[in-house]
């Protein structure tokens, strides 16, 4: 909560800065997956002068390198790795170096991706360079997000909400940039170059916003009055839990605000018959309390990443070639998913159902496995085993609506329920466990995408 003697955020400059920083943290991931057709065209052997951000061919380019699957897997593995390295980096590397260094590294790597649009290169080396960029960019993004959440833990919860809202708009921003590039009417090479320069501009704005914070009185006041390191780490862990990593859509802003505010306050006094528990609580004891909620989180992300974007990006329109077939996937897959996922997460601002004691939550989570065969049986031309049972566009759109809303709602719900299942002094351990299971679910889903694609 805001301190009584705190200065005002003049013209909301600090809030705007953290909003842009949130947007910048997840722009790279979203711009990579939204541009999958461009990469597939380059990997299919098309030169930089003929590869398009979205193929005008009705059936789309063949994904010979399994680009969809590899870009998803190599984006999520760094999250799992830096879940373990975060505490080490927090203690050994200064905060400014972690944040500014990560931003500069992401900018340089994405500038390389933009420059490759102008370079004629055979598919093999192009694939290797792109995958290395994806891995390094997402590694730096993981460090960047954790470090920024550490700063946000010292500030009023409103700024965490703004940061998460910026992250939530990253996916929508990438999809709109794709649509504008396609509709611009310029040649394919210029369109692709403009598309990849856009996130570079976003990262530059993020760097300028971060550099401006020490010159703003409001930011200086809070960043110079940090809580203890232990408390900051706890806040960082909890806030990190409430953001969406794989898709870039934040959890419910109201829930994030409530969680951070509660953590900034003193823990309530224990009941007379409950002695204060000293030291760090047992990991096993906390796991026993939240294991079902953690398992639900793993399963939600496993289902989502197993088909999105590896399978869903392959679905094409069943209509005759034309404008709609060209714009079908960026609109019905990426833009629709990000909007509906954001709406699903926002629902937890109004109600939490089912509650933590209900056995209905695991049932709802398991029902999402039905989306795997449903998407695999949609109109995916590149297949050799399974038939197409849902050829019409309306089927895919309906499946995507339910898929995205359920993902957003169930992810946000599990994040909100987990802290309610443990005692106040156990929240730090619960947060660390949930962070691990979040990363585990993302990695499991990315790995399973190879199997499901092979079954097509």
TrEMBL record:
Main localization (coarse): membrane
Recorded topology in the membrane: Multi-pass membrane protein
Single biological process term from Gene Ontology: inosine transport
GO molecular function: adenine transmembrane transporter activity; cytidine transmembrane transporter activity; guanine transmembrane transporter activity; neurotransmitter transmembrane transporter activity; purine nucleoside transmembrane transporter activity; uracil transmembrane transporter activity; uridine transmembrane transporter activity
Keyword 4Fe-4S: no
Gene3D superfamilies, A to Z: MFS general substrate transporter like domains
InterPro entries the UniProt entry points to: ENT1/ENT2, Eqnu_transpt, MFS_trans_sf
Protein localization: Apical cell membrane; Basolateral cell membrane
Source superkingdom: Eukaryota
Keyword Glycoprotein: yes
Residue stretches spanning the membrane: 12-39, 70-90, 97-117, 129-150, 162-186, 192-213, 290-315, 327-348, 360-382, 394-417, 429-452
Function text: Bidirectional uniporter involved in the facilitative transport of nucleosides and nucleobases, and contributes to maintaining their cellular homeostasis. Functions as a Na(+)-independent, passive transporter. Involved in the transport of nucleosides such as inosine, adenosine, uridine, thymidine, cytidine and guanosine. Also able to transport purine nucleobases (hypoxanthine, adenine, guanine) and pyrimidine nucleobases (thymine, uracil). Involved in nucleoside transport at basolateral membrane of kidney cells, allowing liver absorption of nucleoside metabolites.
NCBIfam families membership: 2a57
Assigned protein family: Belongs to the SLC29A/ENT transporter (TC 2.A.57) family.
Protein name, as recorded: Equilibrative nucleoside transporter 2
Gene symbol of the encoding locus: SLC29A2
């Amino acid at each position: 909560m805001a301190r009584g003697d705190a200065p005002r955020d003049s013209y909301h400059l600090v809030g705007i800065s953290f909003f842009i920083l949130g947007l910048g943290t997840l722009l790279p991931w979203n711009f990579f997956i939204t541009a999958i057709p461009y990469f597939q065209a380059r990997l299919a052997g098309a030169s930089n002068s003929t590869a398009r951000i979205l193929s005008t061919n009705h059936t789309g380019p063949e994904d010979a390198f399994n680009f969809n699957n590899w870009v998803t897997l190599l984006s999520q593995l760094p999250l799992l790795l830096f879940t373990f390295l975060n505490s080490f980096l927090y203690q050994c590397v200064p905060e400014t170096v972690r944040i500014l260094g990560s931003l500069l590294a992401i900018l340089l790597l994405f500038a390389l991706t933009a420059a490759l649009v102008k370079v004629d290169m055979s598919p093999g080396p192009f694939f290797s360079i792109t995958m290395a960029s994806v891995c390094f960019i997402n590694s730096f993004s993981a460090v960047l997000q954790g470090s920024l959440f550490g700063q946000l833990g010292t500030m009023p919860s409103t700024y965490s909400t703004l940061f998460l809202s910026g992250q939530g708009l990253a996916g929508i921003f990438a999809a709109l940039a794709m649509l504008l590039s396609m509709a611009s009417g310029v040649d394919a090479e210029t369109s692709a170059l403009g598309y990849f320069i856009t996130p570079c501009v976003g990262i530059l704005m993020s760097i300028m916003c971060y550099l401006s914070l020490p010159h703003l009185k409001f930011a200086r006041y809070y960043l110079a009055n940090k809580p203890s390191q232990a408390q900051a780490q706890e806040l960082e862990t909890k806030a990190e839990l409430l953001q969406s990593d794989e898709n870039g859509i934040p959890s419910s802003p109201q829930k994030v605000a409530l969680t951070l505010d509660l953590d900034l306050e003193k823990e309530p006094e224990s009941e007379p018959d409950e002695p204060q528990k000293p030291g760090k609580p047992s990991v096993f004891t906390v796991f026993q309390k939240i294991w079902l909620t953690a398992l639900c989180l793993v399963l939600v992300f496993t289902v989502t990443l197993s088909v999105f974007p590896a399978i869903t990006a392959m679905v094409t329109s069943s209509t005759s070639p034309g404008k709609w077939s060209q714009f079908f996937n960026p609109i019905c897959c990426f833009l629709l998913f990000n909007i509906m996922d954001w709406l699903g997460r926002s629902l937890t601002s109004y109600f939490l159902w089912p509650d933590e004691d209900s056995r209905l939550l695991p049932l709802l989570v398991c029902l999402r496995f039905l989306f795997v065969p449903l998407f695999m049986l949609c109109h995916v031309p590149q297949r050799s085993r399974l038939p197409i049972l849902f050829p019409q566009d309306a089927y895919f759109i309906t499946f995507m609506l339910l898929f995205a809303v359920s993902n957003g709602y169930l992810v946000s719900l599990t994040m909100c329920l987990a802290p309610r299942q443990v005692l106040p002094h156990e929240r730090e351990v619960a947060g660390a466990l949930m962070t691990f299971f979040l990363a585990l679910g993302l990695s499991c889903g990315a790995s399973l995408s190879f199997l499901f694609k092979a079954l097509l």
